[in-house]
Write a structure and sequence with these properties.
It is a single chain. The protein has 606 residues and is an alpha+beta fold. It has 3 domains: 191 residues, 2-Layer Sandwich (Heat Shock Protein 90), CATH 3.30.565.10; 131 residues, Ribosomal Protein S5, domain 2; 219 residues, MutL, C-terminal domain, dimerisation subdomain (formyl-coa transferase, domain 3). It has 19 helices and 23 strands. The strands form 5 sheets. It has an 8-stranded mixed β-sheet. Strands 9-10-13-11-12 form a 5-stranded mixed β-sheet. Helix 15 packs across helix 17. The chain is elongated and about 95 Å long.
Amino acid sequence: MADIIRLLPDHVANQIAAGEVVQRPASVVKELLENSVDAGATRIVLVVKDAGRTLVQVTDDGKGMSPGDARLCFERHATSKIRLADDLNAVRTKGFRGEALASIAAIAQVELRTREHDEELGTRVLMEGSRVRTQEPMACAPGTTIAVRSLFYNVPARRQFLKSDGVELKHVIDEFQRVALAHPDIGFQLVHNEHEEFNLPSGTGPGALRQRIVGLFGRKYDERLVPVEEHTELVTIQGFVGKPEYAKRTRGEQYFFVNQRFIRSSYLEHAVRKAYEELVARDTHPGWFLRIELDPAQIDINIHPTKTEIKFRDDRMVYALVHAAVRRALGRFNIVPSLDFEPEPALLAAQTNTGNGKAPAWRPTDLGAFTAPPRPSPEGWQQLFQLGMVTSADEETVATQAAPRTQVVPMREHEAPDGERPVFQLHARYIMAQLRSGLLVVDQQRAHERILYERNLKLLEQGAGLSQTELFPRHVELSATDLALVEEVLPELRSMGFDLALFGGRTLQVNGMPAEASDEDPGHLLETLLEQLKRERSSLRNERHTVLARSMARSMAIRPGRVLSVTEMHDLIDRLFACEHPHHTPLGKPTLLTIGSEELSERFER
Protein backbone atom coordinates (compact mmCIF):
# COMPACT_ATOMS: atom_id res chain seq x y z
CA MET A 1 0.00 0.00 0.00
CA ALA A 2 1.39 3.41 -0.99
CA ASP A 3 2.21 6.01 1.65
CA ILE A 4 -0.53 8.62 1.97
CA ILE A 5 0.87 10.96 4.66
CA ARG A 6 2.78 13.96 3.34
CA LEU A 7 4.17 17.17 4.74
CA LEU A 8 2.16 20.27 3.84
CA PRO A 9 3.87 23.01 1.82
CA ASP A 10 4.70 26.06 3.95
CA HIS A 11 2.21 28.39 2.26
CA VAL A 12 -0.63 25.86 2.79
CA ALA A 13 0.38 25.32 6.43
CA ASN A 14 0.39 29.09 6.93
CA GLN A 15 -3.12 29.40 5.48
CA ILE A 16 -4.35 26.69 7.84
CA ALA A 17 -2.69 28.44 10.79
CA ALA A 18 -4.28 31.68 9.63
CA GLY A 19 -7.69 30.07 10.12
CA GLU A 20 -6.94 29.84 13.84
CA VAL A 21 -5.30 33.24 14.25
CA VAL A 22 -7.12 35.44 11.68
CA GLN A 23 -10.88 35.03 11.59
CA ARG A 24 -11.85 38.60 10.64
CA PRO A 25 -10.25 42.07 10.36
CA ALA A 26 -10.50 42.48 14.13
CA SER A 27 -8.11 39.52 14.54
CA VAL A 28 -5.48 41.41 12.53
CA VAL A 29 -6.07 44.52 14.63
CA LYS A 30 -5.53 42.56 17.85
CA GLU A 31 -2.27 40.95 16.70
CA LEU A 32 -0.75 44.15 15.31
CA LEU A 33 -1.68 46.29 18.32
CA GLU A 34 -0.21 43.72 20.69
CA ASN A 35 3.02 43.60 18.66
CA SER A 36 3.30 47.39 18.99
CA VAL A 37 2.76 47.20 22.74
CA ASP A 38 5.47 44.53 23.02
CA ALA A 39 7.80 46.79 21.02
CA GLY A 40 7.67 49.38 23.81
CA ALA A 41 5.59 51.96 21.92
CA THR A 42 4.36 55.09 23.68
CA ARG A 43 2.01 56.07 20.83
CA ILE A 44 0.06 53.74 18.51
CA VAL A 45 -2.11 54.79 15.55
CA LEU A 46 -4.61 52.38 13.98
CA VAL A 47 -5.99 53.25 10.52
CA VAL A 48 -8.82 51.14 9.11
CA LYS A 49 -10.67 51.33 5.80
CA ASP A 50 -13.96 49.59 5.03
CA ALA A 51 -14.00 48.03 8.52
CA GLY A 52 -10.64 46.39 7.76
CA ARG A 53 -11.49 44.65 4.49
CA THR A 54 -9.43 47.08 2.43
CA LEU A 55 -6.79 48.21 4.94
CA VAL A 56 -5.62 47.68 8.50
CA GLN A 57 -2.55 49.76 9.29
CA VAL A 58 -0.77 50.13 12.64
CA THR A 59 2.00 52.67 13.22
CA ASP A 60 4.03 52.83 16.44
CA ASP A 61 7.09 54.59 17.83
CA GLY A 62 8.52 51.40 19.34
CA LYS A 63 12.07 50.14 19.07
CA GLY A 64 11.81 48.99 15.46
CA MET A 65 13.57 46.03 13.80
CA SER A 66 16.83 45.31 12.07
CA PRO A 67 16.78 44.22 8.38
CA GLY A 68 17.27 40.60 9.42
CA ASP A 69 14.44 40.66 11.97
CA ALA A 70 12.18 42.46 9.49
CA ARG A 71 12.40 39.46 7.18
CA LEU A 72 12.47 36.73 9.82
CA CYS A 73 9.35 37.99 11.64
CA PHE A 74 7.18 36.60 8.81
CA GLU A 75 8.42 33.03 9.37
CA ARG A 76 6.30 30.65 11.46
CA HIS A 77 7.42 30.19 15.07
CA ALA A 78 9.87 33.10 14.77
CA THR A 79 9.75 34.88 18.15
CA SER A 80 11.96 37.00 20.35
CA LYS A 81 9.95 36.23 23.47
CA ILE A 82 10.96 32.68 24.45
CA ARG A 83 13.96 30.39 24.03
CA LEU A 84 13.06 27.40 26.23
CA ALA A 85 9.79 25.74 27.22
CA ASP A 86 10.38 26.94 30.79
CA ASP A 87 10.16 30.54 29.55
CA LEU A 88 6.40 30.04 29.19
CA ASN A 89 6.17 30.24 32.99
CA ALA A 90 7.43 33.83 32.96
CA VAL A 91 5.79 35.32 29.85
CA ARG A 92 4.56 38.89 30.37
CA THR A 93 4.38 39.92 26.72
CA LYS A 94 1.29 39.72 24.48
CA GLY A 95 2.57 37.48 21.70
CA PHE A 96 5.09 34.70 22.01
CA ARG A 97 4.20 31.93 19.55
CA GLY A 98 5.55 33.66 16.46
CA GLU A 99 2.55 32.82 14.26
CA ALA A 100 0.69 36.11 13.90
CA LEU A 101 2.60 37.85 11.08
CA ALA A 102 3.17 34.57 9.21
CA SER A 103 -0.56 33.84 9.32
CA ILE A 104 -1.53 37.37 8.25
CA ALA A 105 0.97 37.36 5.37
CA ALA A 106 -0.52 34.08 4.13
CA ILE A 107 -3.94 35.59 3.40
CA ALA A 108 -3.23 39.27 2.69
CA GLN A 109 -0.83 41.74 1.07
CA VAL A 110 1.44 43.05 3.84
CA GLU A 111 3.86 45.97 3.76
CA LEU A 112 6.29 46.44 6.66
CA ARG A 113 8.32 49.61 7.23
CA THR A 114 10.58 49.62 10.24
CA ARG A 115 13.62 51.41 11.60
CA GLU A 116 15.60 51.16 14.82
CA HIS A 117 16.07 54.47 16.65
CA ASP A 118 19.89 54.46 16.40
CA GLU A 119 19.93 53.69 12.66
CA GLU A 120 19.79 56.19 9.79
CA LEU A 121 17.92 53.92 7.36
CA GLY A 122 15.04 51.54 7.83
CA THR A 123 13.78 48.50 5.95
CA ARG A 124 10.75 47.90 3.73
CA VAL A 125 9.41 44.37 3.22
CA LEU A 126 6.47 43.55 0.94
CA MET A 127 4.79 40.15 1.43
CA GLU A 128 2.01 38.56 -0.61
CA GLY A 129 0.60 35.09 0.04
CA SER A 130 3.56 34.14 2.30
CA ARG A 131 6.06 35.09 -0.43
CA VAL A 132 8.55 37.95 -0.25
CA ARG A 133 7.98 40.35 -3.14
CA THR A 134 10.36 43.10 -2.07
CA GLN A 135 12.94 43.78 0.63
CA GLU A 136 14.90 47.01 0.43
CA PRO A 137 16.37 49.79 2.58
CA MET A 138 14.34 52.99 2.82
CA ALA A 139 14.10 56.22 4.77
CA CYS A 140 11.32 56.10 7.38
CA ALA A 141 10.51 57.26 10.88
CA PRO A 142 11.82 55.27 13.85
CA GLY A 143 9.42 52.54 14.93
CA THR A 144 7.26 50.28 12.79
CA THR A 145 4.36 50.60 10.36
CA ILE A 146 2.54 47.49 9.13
CA ALA A 147 -0.16 47.84 6.47
CA VAL A 148 -2.39 44.83 5.75
CA ARG A 149 -4.35 45.20 2.50
CA SER A 150 -7.00 43.07 0.75
CA LEU A 151 -7.59 40.66 3.60
CA PHE A 152 -8.51 37.12 2.38
CA TYR A 153 -7.78 38.12 -1.24
CA ASN A 154 -6.58 34.57 -1.93
CA VAL A 155 -9.21 32.85 0.24
CA PRO A 156 -12.50 34.13 -1.26
CA ALA A 157 -14.60 31.61 0.67
CA ARG A 158 -13.42 33.12 3.96
CA ARG A 159 -14.08 36.65 2.71
CA GLN A 160 -17.70 35.75 1.94
CA PHE A 161 -18.27 34.88 5.60
CA LEU A 162 -17.47 38.42 6.76
CA LYS A 163 -20.47 40.38 8.06
CA SER A 164 -21.57 43.90 7.17
CA ASP A 165 -19.16 46.81 7.67
CA GLY A 166 -21.11 47.89 10.75
CA VAL A 167 -20.68 44.50 12.41
CA GLU A 168 -17.02 44.15 11.45
CA LEU A 169 -16.27 47.68 12.66
CA LYS A 170 -17.84 46.85 16.01
CA HIS A 171 -15.43 43.91 16.37
CA VAL A 172 -12.49 46.14 15.41
CA ILE A 173 -13.51 48.72 18.03
CA ASP A 174 -13.91 45.96 20.64
CA GLU A 175 -10.31 44.78 20.10
CA PHE A 176 -9.02 48.36 20.09
CA GLN A 177 -10.79 49.10 23.37
CA ARG A 178 -9.41 45.99 25.06
CA VAL A 179 -5.80 46.84 24.24
CA ALA A 180 -6.31 50.54 25.05
CA LEU A 181 -7.87 49.72 28.44
CA ALA A 182 -5.03 47.34 29.29
CA HIS A 183 -2.43 50.06 28.63
CA PRO A 184 -3.61 53.53 29.74
CA ASP A 185 0.06 54.59 29.81
CA ILE A 186 0.17 54.37 25.97
CA GLY A 187 -1.51 56.90 23.67
CA PHE A 188 -3.87 55.39 21.09
CA GLN A 189 -5.62 56.75 17.99
CA LEU A 190 -8.20 55.05 15.77
CA VAL A 191 -9.13 56.39 12.32
CA HIS A 192 -11.82 54.69 10.19
CA ASN A 193 -12.40 55.81 6.60
CA GLU A 194 -10.47 59.04 7.34
CA HIS A 195 -12.75 59.81 10.31
CA GLU A 196 -11.14 59.90 13.76
CA GLU A 197 -13.03 57.62 16.13
CA PHE A 198 -10.70 57.94 19.14
CA ASN A 199 -7.70 60.01 20.15
CA LEU A 200 -6.63 58.86 23.60
CA PRO A 201 -3.73 60.58 25.37
CA SER A 202 -1.40 58.54 27.53
CA GLY A 203 -1.87 58.81 31.27
CA THR A 204 0.08 58.11 34.41
CA GLY A 205 -0.79 57.58 38.03
CA PRO A 206 -3.94 56.25 39.70
CA GLY A 207 -6.28 58.33 37.53
CA ALA A 208 -4.99 56.97 34.20
CA LEU A 209 -7.46 54.07 33.95
CA ARG A 210 -10.44 56.27 34.84
CA GLN A 211 -9.32 58.79 32.19
CA ARG A 212 -9.03 55.98 29.64
CA ILE A 213 -12.51 54.60 30.45
CA VAL A 214 -14.05 58.06 30.08
CA GLY A 215 -12.14 58.58 26.81
CA LEU A 216 -13.50 55.34 25.38
CA PHE A 217 -17.07 55.32 26.68
CA GLY A 218 -17.92 58.97 27.32
CA ARG A 219 -17.95 61.55 30.13
CA LYS A 220 -21.10 60.09 31.68
CA TYR A 221 -19.05 57.11 32.90
CA ASP A 222 -17.08 59.28 35.30
CA GLU A 223 -19.96 59.30 37.77
CA ARG A 224 -20.83 55.63 37.25
CA LEU A 225 -17.54 54.15 38.49
CA VAL A 226 -16.67 52.79 41.92
CA PRO A 227 -12.92 52.27 42.48
CA VAL A 228 -11.63 48.83 43.49
CA GLU A 229 -8.18 48.47 45.02
CA GLU A 230 -6.83 45.56 47.05
CA HIS A 231 -3.20 44.60 47.57
CA THR A 232 -2.20 41.23 49.00
CA GLU A 233 0.99 39.19 48.95
CA LEU A 234 -0.57 36.91 46.34
CA VAL A 235 -2.66 39.13 44.08
CA THR A 236 -3.20 42.82 43.36
CA ILE A 237 -6.67 43.82 42.17
CA GLN A 238 -7.31 47.34 40.87
CA GLY A 239 -9.84 49.02 38.66
CA PHE A 240 -13.48 50.02 38.74
CA VAL A 241 -16.93 48.49 38.94
CA GLY A 242 -20.16 50.14 37.89
CA LYS A 243 -22.79 51.39 40.31
CA PRO A 244 -25.74 48.97 40.44
CA GLU A 245 -28.27 51.50 39.16
CA TYR A 246 -26.39 51.68 35.84
CA ALA A 247 -26.55 47.92 35.13
CA LYS A 248 -27.69 47.21 31.58
CA ARG A 249 -29.74 44.50 29.94
CA THR A 250 -26.93 43.67 27.51
CA ARG A 251 -23.34 42.65 28.05
CA GLY A 252 -20.46 44.66 26.67
CA GLU A 253 -18.66 46.51 29.46
CA GLN A 254 -17.21 43.61 31.43
CA TYR A 255 -13.40 43.58 31.28
CA PHE A 256 -10.89 41.41 33.12
CA PHE A 257 -7.18 41.98 32.59
CA VAL A 258 -4.62 39.55 34.01
CA ASN A 259 -1.08 40.92 33.87
CA GLN A 260 -2.32 43.53 31.32
CA ARG A 261 -3.85 40.85 29.07
CA PHE A 262 -7.60 40.87 28.33
CA ILE A 263 -9.20 37.56 29.29
CA ARG A 264 -12.64 35.97 29.38
CA SER A 265 -13.56 34.01 32.49
CA SER A 266 -17.04 32.84 33.41
CA TYR A 267 -15.53 31.77 36.74
CA LEU A 268 -14.38 35.29 37.67
CA GLU A 269 -17.57 36.74 36.22
CA HIS A 270 -19.52 34.65 38.70
CA ALA A 271 -17.37 36.06 41.51
CA VAL A 272 -18.26 39.64 40.53
CA ARG A 273 -21.93 38.85 39.93
CA LYS A 274 -22.15 37.28 43.38
CA ALA A 275 -20.82 40.52 44.91
CA TYR A 276 -23.77 42.32 43.26
CA GLU A 277 -26.28 39.81 44.66
CA GLU A 278 -29.60 41.53 45.48
CA LEU A 279 -28.27 44.80 44.06
CA VAL A 280 -29.13 44.23 40.38
CA ALA A 281 -31.87 42.29 38.62
CA ARG A 282 -30.98 38.85 37.31
CA ASP A 283 -31.38 39.84 33.68
CA THR A 284 -29.14 42.92 33.96
CA HIS A 285 -25.36 43.18 33.77
CA PRO A 286 -23.22 45.60 35.80
CA GLY A 287 -20.03 46.85 34.18
CA TRP A 288 -16.51 46.31 35.49
CA PHE A 289 -12.92 47.11 34.51
CA LEU A 290 -10.70 44.98 36.74
CA ARG A 291 -6.92 44.57 36.50
CA ILE A 292 -5.44 41.51 38.23
CA GLU A 293 -1.68 41.25 38.75
CA LEU A 294 0.01 38.07 39.97
CA ASP A 295 3.11 35.97 39.39
CA PRO A 296 3.10 34.65 35.76
CA ALA A 297 4.08 31.25 37.14
CA GLN A 298 0.62 31.09 38.74
CA ILE A 299 -1.21 31.10 35.39
CA ASP A 300 -1.16 29.19 32.10
CA ILE A 301 -1.90 31.43 29.11
CA ASN A 302 -1.04 28.86 26.45
CA ILE A 303 -4.39 27.05 26.34
CA HIS A 304 -6.12 28.94 23.50
CA PRO A 305 -4.87 30.33 20.15
CA THR A 306 -6.14 33.85 20.90
CA LYS A 307 -4.85 33.68 24.51
CA THR A 308 -8.10 35.16 25.87
CA GLU A 309 -8.61 32.13 28.11
CA ILE A 310 -6.17 31.31 30.88
CA LYS A 311 -5.92 28.84 33.72
CA PHE A 312 -5.06 29.81 37.29
CA ARG A 313 -2.99 27.47 39.42
CA ASP A 314 -5.16 28.38 42.44
CA ASP A 315 -8.44 29.47 40.88
CA ARG A 316 -10.37 29.29 44.18
CA MET A 317 -8.05 31.81 45.78
CA VAL A 318 -8.38 34.24 42.86
CA TYR A 319 -12.17 33.79 42.87
CA ALA A 320 -12.40 34.56 46.60
CA LEU A 321 -10.19 37.63 46.36
CA VAL A 322 -12.02 39.10 43.34
CA HIS A 323 -15.39 38.58 45.02
CA ALA A 324 -14.17 40.08 48.30
CA ALA A 325 -12.51 43.07 46.60
CA VAL A 326 -15.65 44.01 44.65
CA ARG A 327 -17.96 43.51 47.62
CA ARG A 328 -15.67 45.58 49.82
CA ALA A 329 -15.53 48.36 47.20
CA LEU A 330 -19.31 48.50 46.93
CA GLY A 331 -19.56 48.52 50.71
CA ARG A 332 -16.94 51.23 51.14
CA PHE A 333 -19.00 53.56 48.99
CA ASN A 334 -22.22 52.87 50.89
CA ILE A 335 -23.76 50.86 48.08
CA VAL A 336 -24.05 47.52 49.91
CA PRO A 337 -26.15 47.87 53.10
CA SER A 338 -23.97 45.44 55.01
CA LEU A 339 -24.33 44.85 58.77
CA ASP A 340 -21.12 42.83 58.95
CA PHE A 341 -18.58 44.01 61.48
CA GLU A 342 -15.82 41.75 60.21
CA PRO A 343 -13.82 42.20 57.00
CA GLU A 344 -13.99 39.67 54.19
CA PRO A 345 -12.22 36.43 55.30
CA ALA A 346 -10.48 36.11 51.93
CA LEU A 347 -8.91 39.54 52.33
CA LEU A 348 -7.84 38.83 55.90
CA ALA A 349 -6.21 35.56 54.84
CA ALA A 350 -4.25 37.17 52.01
CA GLN A 351 -3.55 40.52 53.69
CA THR A 352 0.09 41.53 53.75
CA ASN A 353 1.58 41.37 57.24
CA THR A 354 3.03 44.47 58.86
CA GLY A 355 6.65 44.75 59.81
CA ASN A 356 6.07 43.39 63.35
CA GLY A 357 4.50 40.21 61.99
CA LYS A 358 0.95 41.17 62.99
CA ALA A 359 -1.91 41.71 60.61
CA PRO A 360 -2.82 45.39 60.17
CA ALA A 361 -5.51 46.69 62.49
CA TRP A 362 -8.98 46.65 60.99
CA ARG A 363 -11.85 48.90 62.04
CA PRO A 364 -15.58 48.64 61.33
CA THR A 365 -15.40 52.09 59.72
CA ASP A 366 -13.24 50.62 56.94
CA LEU A 367 -16.41 49.43 55.24
CA GLY A 368 -18.18 52.79 55.55
CA ALA A 369 -20.94 53.95 57.86
CA PHE A 370 -24.21 52.04 57.58
CA THR A 371 -27.53 52.38 59.36
CA ALA A 372 -29.96 49.55 59.95
CA PRO A 373 -33.25 49.68 58.02
CA PRO A 374 -36.23 51.01 60.03
CA ARG A 375 -38.41 48.45 61.79
CA PRO A 376 -42.02 48.09 60.56
CA SER A 377 -44.58 49.84 62.75
CA PRO A 378 -48.22 48.87 63.41
CA GLU A 379 -49.37 52.22 62.02
CA GLY A 380 -48.27 51.06 58.56
CA TRP A 381 -51.18 48.63 58.35
CA GLN A 382 -53.65 51.43 59.00
CA GLN A 383 -52.05 53.65 56.33
CA LEU A 384 -52.25 50.80 53.80
CA PHE A 385 -56.01 51.21 53.44
CA GLN A 386 -55.78 54.99 53.04
CA LEU A 387 -53.36 55.03 50.09
CA GLY A 388 -54.65 56.34 46.80
CA MET A 389 -57.30 58.70 48.11
CA VAL A 390 -56.05 61.53 45.90
CA THR A 391 -57.39 65.03 46.45
CA SER A 392 -57.41 67.69 43.78
CA ALA A 393 -54.62 69.53 45.60
CA ASP A 394 -52.44 66.42 45.63
CA GLU A 395 -53.19 65.21 42.11
CA GLU A 396 -50.48 67.23 40.36
CA THR A 397 -47.83 66.00 42.83
CA VAL A 398 -48.87 62.35 42.52
CA ALA A 399 -48.84 62.52 38.73
CA THR A 400 -45.15 63.41 38.70
CA GLN A 401 -44.01 60.67 41.06
CA ALA A 402 -43.93 56.89 40.95
CA ALA A 403 -47.01 55.68 42.81
CA PRO A 404 -46.70 53.15 45.67
CA ARG A 405 -47.36 49.55 44.73
CA THR A 406 -50.66 49.51 46.60
CA GLN A 407 -52.02 52.76 45.19
CA VAL A 408 -55.53 52.84 43.78
CA VAL A 409 -56.53 56.02 41.93
CA PRO A 410 -60.35 56.10 41.97
CA MET A 411 -62.36 57.91 39.33
CA ARG A 412 -64.50 60.81 40.44
CA GLU A 413 -67.87 60.97 38.73
CA HIS A 414 -67.39 64.42 37.20
CA GLU A 415 -64.21 63.21 35.42
CA ALA A 416 -65.93 60.50 33.36
CA PRO A 417 -67.06 61.66 29.92
CA ASP A 418 -70.77 61.12 29.30
CA GLY A 419 -71.65 57.61 28.20
CA GLU A 420 -68.25 56.07 28.98
CA ARG A 421 -67.84 53.19 31.40
CA PRO A 422 -66.08 53.90 34.71
CA VAL A 423 -62.38 53.05 34.85
CA PHE A 424 -59.74 53.27 37.55
CA GLN A 425 -56.04 52.59 37.99
CA LEU A 426 -54.59 49.96 40.32
CA HIS A 427 -51.03 50.22 41.65
CA ALA A 428 -50.33 52.82 38.92
CA ARG A 429 -49.84 49.78 36.70
CA TYR A 430 -53.18 48.26 35.73
CA ILE A 431 -56.33 49.83 34.29
CA MET A 432 -59.56 48.26 35.44
CA ALA A 433 -62.86 48.77 33.65
CA GLN A 434 -66.38 47.43 34.07
CA LEU A 435 -67.67 45.08 31.42
CA ARG A 436 -71.27 44.06 30.87
CA SER A 437 -70.33 40.55 31.91
CA GLY A 438 -67.50 41.19 34.38
CA LEU A 439 -64.22 43.06 34.72
CA LEU A 440 -61.45 44.05 32.28
CA VAL A 441 -57.85 44.40 33.53
CA VAL A 442 -55.29 46.02 31.19
CA ASP A 443 -51.52 46.13 31.76
CA GLN A 444 -50.82 49.75 30.79
CA GLN A 445 -47.19 49.18 29.78
CA ARG A 446 -47.88 46.14 27.64
CA ALA A 447 -50.92 47.74 26.03
CA HIS A 448 -48.90 50.83 25.10
CA GLU A 449 -46.14 48.59 23.77
CA ARG A 450 -48.59 46.86 21.38
CA ILE A 451 -49.98 50.23 20.24
CA LEU A 452 -46.52 51.66 19.58
CA TYR A 453 -45.32 48.50 17.84
CA GLU A 454 -48.09 48.56 15.22
CA ARG A 455 -47.69 52.33 14.80
CA ASN A 456 -43.91 51.98 14.29
CA LEU A 457 -44.35 49.21 11.72
CA LYS A 458 -46.63 51.45 9.65
CA LEU A 459 -44.22 54.38 9.93
CA LEU A 460 -41.33 52.21 8.74
CA GLU A 461 -43.36 51.06 5.75
CA GLN A 462 -44.49 54.61 4.90
CA GLY A 463 -41.17 56.28 5.83
CA ALA A 464 -42.76 59.47 7.16
CA GLY A 465 -42.98 59.64 10.94
CA LEU A 466 -44.10 62.79 12.73
CA SER A 467 -41.34 64.60 14.57
CA GLN A 468 -41.69 67.16 17.36
CA THR A 469 -38.95 69.74 16.77
CA GLU A 470 -36.85 70.58 19.82
CA LEU A 471 -36.82 74.24 20.82
CA PHE A 472 -33.06 73.95 21.26
CA PRO A 473 -31.11 71.05 19.72
CA ARG A 474 -29.94 68.50 22.28
CA HIS A 475 -26.59 66.71 22.15
CA VAL A 476 -26.05 63.09 23.15
CA GLU A 477 -22.59 61.54 23.51
CA LEU A 478 -22.44 57.85 22.56
CA SER A 479 -19.80 55.16 22.69
CA ALA A 480 -18.18 54.29 19.36
CA THR A 481 -20.09 51.00 19.08
CA ASP A 482 -23.42 52.69 19.89
CA LEU A 483 -22.73 55.43 17.34
CA ALA A 484 -21.96 52.80 14.68
CA LEU A 485 -25.28 51.10 15.49
CA VAL A 486 -27.15 54.41 15.21
CA GLU A 487 -25.57 55.09 11.82
CA GLU A 488 -26.62 51.61 10.68
CA VAL A 489 -30.30 52.20 11.50
CA LEU A 490 -30.44 55.99 11.00
CA PRO A 491 -32.89 55.90 8.03
CA GLU A 492 -35.33 53.79 10.04
CA LEU A 493 -35.00 56.04 13.11
CA ARG A 494 -35.88 59.03 10.95
CA SER A 495 -38.90 57.14 9.60
CA MET A 496 -40.13 56.73 13.18
CA GLY A 497 -39.84 60.45 13.93
CA PHE A 498 -36.26 60.99 15.13
CA ASP A 499 -34.54 64.02 13.62
CA LEU A 500 -30.87 63.17 14.20
CA ALA A 501 -27.61 64.49 12.80
CA LEU A 502 -23.96 63.64 13.39
CA PHE A 503 -22.47 66.58 15.29
CA GLY A 504 -18.83 65.57 15.32
CA GLY A 505 -16.72 63.02 17.14
CA ARG A 506 -19.10 60.64 18.92
CA THR A 507 -21.79 63.25 19.55
CA LEU A 508 -25.28 63.05 18.09
CA GLN A 509 -27.41 66.17 17.67
CA VAL A 510 -31.13 65.63 18.37
CA ASN A 511 -33.18 68.22 16.47
CA GLY A 512 -36.52 66.47 16.93
CA MET A 513 -38.14 63.53 18.70
CA PRO A 514 -41.06 61.25 17.78
CA ALA A 515 -44.28 63.11 18.56
CA GLU A 516 -45.34 60.46 21.08
CA ALA A 517 -42.00 60.73 22.91
CA SER A 518 -41.55 64.51 22.86
CA ASP A 519 -41.43 64.63 26.67
CA GLU A 520 -38.77 61.92 26.94
CA ASP A 521 -35.13 62.66 27.62
CA PRO A 522 -33.37 62.03 24.26
CA GLY A 523 -30.25 60.55 25.84
CA HIS A 524 -32.16 58.10 28.02
CA LEU A 525 -34.54 57.10 25.22
CA LEU A 526 -31.70 56.48 22.74
CA GLU A 527 -29.68 54.53 25.29
CA THR A 528 -32.70 52.33 26.11
CA LEU A 529 -33.45 51.82 22.42
CA LEU A 530 -29.85 50.84 21.64
CA GLU A 531 -29.84 48.35 24.52
CA GLN A 532 -32.94 46.73 23.03
CA LEU A 533 -31.36 46.64 19.56
CA LYS A 534 -28.16 45.05 20.86
CA ARG A 535 -30.19 42.32 22.56
CA GLU A 536 -31.78 41.46 19.22
CA ARG A 537 -28.71 42.06 17.06
CA SER A 538 -28.80 38.54 15.65
CA SER A 539 -32.28 39.16 14.21
CA LEU A 540 -31.67 42.74 13.10
CA ARG A 541 -30.23 41.79 9.73
CA ASN A 542 -33.13 39.59 8.57
CA GLU A 543 -36.09 41.11 10.42
CA ARG A 544 -34.99 44.72 10.41
CA HIS A 545 -38.37 46.49 10.54
CA THR A 546 -39.85 44.07 13.07
CA VAL A 547 -36.87 44.34 15.43
CA LEU A 548 -36.72 48.14 15.17
CA ALA A 549 -40.46 48.56 15.70
CA ARG A 550 -40.43 46.19 18.66
CA SER A 551 -37.34 47.75 20.25
CA MET A 552 -38.70 51.26 19.82
CA ALA A 553 -42.04 50.23 21.34
CA ARG A 554 -40.39 48.72 24.40
CA SER A 555 -38.23 51.83 24.86
CA MET A 556 -41.12 54.32 24.60
CA ALA A 557 -43.90 52.44 26.40
CA ILE A 558 -45.17 54.03 29.62
CA ARG A 559 -43.71 52.43 32.72
CA PRO A 560 -45.44 51.12 35.85
CA GLY A 561 -45.75 53.92 38.39
CA ARG A 562 -47.13 56.53 36.03
CA VAL A 563 -50.52 57.84 37.16
CA LEU A 564 -52.99 58.26 34.30
CA SER A 565 -56.04 60.49 34.10
CA VAL A 566 -59.39 58.96 33.23
CA THR A 567 -59.17 60.45 29.75
CA GLU A 568 -55.73 58.87 29.24
CA MET A 569 -57.02 55.50 30.43
CA HIS A 570 -59.97 55.59 28.03
CA ASP A 571 -57.67 56.67 25.20
CA LEU A 572 -55.24 53.81 25.89
CA ILE A 573 -58.02 51.21 25.89
CA ASP A 574 -59.56 52.63 22.70
CA ARG A 575 -56.20 52.59 20.89
CA LEU A 576 -55.45 49.08 22.11
CA PHE A 577 -58.67 47.65 20.69
CA ALA A 578 -58.02 49.48 17.42
CA CYS A 579 -54.88 47.34 16.97
CA GLU A 580 -54.84 44.30 14.71
CA HIS A 581 -53.71 42.05 17.57
CA PRO A 582 -54.72 43.76 20.82
CA HIS A 583 -54.49 40.77 23.13
CA HIS A 584 -50.69 40.27 23.12
CA THR A 585 -47.44 42.20 23.04
CA PRO A 586 -45.08 41.79 20.04
CA LEU A 587 -43.34 39.00 21.99
CA GLY A 588 -46.61 37.20 22.77
CA LYS A 589 -47.23 38.24 26.38
CA PRO A 590 -50.84 39.06 27.34
CA THR A 591 -51.85 42.73 27.41
CA LEU A 592 -55.20 42.20 29.15
CA LEU A 593 -57.38 39.70 30.92
CA THR A 594 -61.07 39.49 31.73
CA ILE A 595 -62.81 38.19 34.83
CA GLY A 596 -66.38 37.13 34.13
CA SER A 597 -69.34 37.61 36.43
CA GLU A 598 -69.71 33.85 36.76
CA GLU A 599 -66.10 33.51 37.92
CA LEU A 600 -66.63 36.27 40.50
CA SER A 601 -69.78 34.59 41.78
CA GLU A 602 -67.94 31.29 42.00
CA ARG A 603 -65.06 32.85 43.93
CA PHE A 604 -67.52 34.40 46.39
CA GLU A 605 -69.34 31.05 46.61
CA ARG A 606 -72.64 32.57 45.53
